[in-house]
Amino acid sequence: MNIYKILLGIAAICLAAALIITFSGNIENAGVLYIAFFLALAIGIRTFPTFKGLSYTVIILAAVTTAMFYPGPFVEINGFRLASLITPLLQLIMFGMGTSMSFNDFAGVIKMPKGVFLGVTSHFIIMPAIGFTLANVSGFPPEIAAGIILIGCSPNGMASNVISYLAKANLALSITITAVSTMLAPFVTPFLMKLLAGEFVEVHALDMMWEIIKIVIIPILAGLIFNKFFSGKVDWLDKAMPLVSMTSIALIIVVITAVGRESLLSIGPKLVLLVLLHNLSGYTLGYWSGRLFKMSERDCRTIAIEVGMQNGGLASGIAKAMGKIATVGLAPAIFGPLMNITGSILASYWHRKPPAEKVNENVVVEPT
User: Fold this and answer.
1) Looking at the domain assignment, is residue 60 inside a domain?
2) Global pTM value
3) 89-107: per-residue pLDDT in tens?
């Protein structure tokens, strides 16, 4: 029997034992078993090609579980609050995003103007509107409700490009929409937050604009310049950046989970459900907005993915800058892992149903 199947067996045993302890009323003693379950599952599912891409997300779930049961080490170490790391980690992630892009990615605006306009416009209309609606019907405290709006007002993330590649969507269009929405974020996100979330929390639009420029625009521009002059010349950095980015994202999510633990314990399941609804509604309405404007099947898939997947890291950084990481930051922290799961499932489904039409793409994205 191979090691993967053994680990899946261990995962099943750990889960069964954890559930027995939980239902016996001693959930505080089940933490190690739940953590072991997720870690064993993360490695075990790599034996299945369909689920191999979910290993990273399952590892994040293990880390989140650790933060929920043992939050102390993720909140403060020897008087140093780990939340202080969120902004520099995000800047590092965005620099990595810039090194994987080029100035040519923006040429798609000229080559595919209709698709780019529709994708960016749909993204900044559909997700904020859904977020605003869910926040108003949620019954959550104002700051937590504002977090739902915040994730809806955020731009796309690079994860959408990987999912588009796997889903046999229009990868060139996906990359251009991501690039354009990211560069528009300093102007669009603060405006939408002021408009939609102003009744929930105090929003300083100019301060938020500067935070986005500092967290996203400057590091991405630095990465673009680095890529232009040093692409392929620093092999160790090219190989290290994806791992650094994934580790940084995991750490950010864990820190937010630990800091917001008490709120999650009281409203966690309902918040997860609303965030999932937000994400799935984005895919659905994004796809049908493409259909409404008679886009090709590939472009409809692309717009669905670009609308439904958000830059949760940036939203977390904005929440940190607002001083509300334990409340406003909760929805973004949940959205990230969830969208990776749903996006991978959607990509797997579409991968098995290739669209009839073909597009000429000169871009290759390696799946992570």
Assistant:
1) no
2) 0.87
3) 999 988 988 887 777 777 7
What are the start-end ranges of the H helices in the chain? Answer: 3-23, 31-44, 55-69, 72-75, 86-99, 108-111, 113-138, 142-153, 159-166, 171-197, 205-212, 218-230, 235-259, 261-292, 297-308, 312-321, 330-351
Which residue range is the domain that position 265 belongs to?
85-351
**HSE-up (13 A, CA, CB side) for residue 187:** 4
* Dist CA 213 CA 225 (whole Å): 16
pLDDT by residue (tens digit) across 278-324? 999 999 999 999 999 999 999 999 999 999 999 998 999 999 999 99
Number of domains forming the structure of the chain: 1
What CATH code is carried by the domain that includes residue 169?
1.20.1530.20
- 3-class secondary structure, 81: strand
Q: Classify residue 233: in a domain, yes or no.
A: yes
> Is residue 196, in this structure, part of any structural domain at all?
yes
Cβ-based neighbour number of residue 117 at 10 Å: 14
- Coil vs helix vs strand at 309: coil
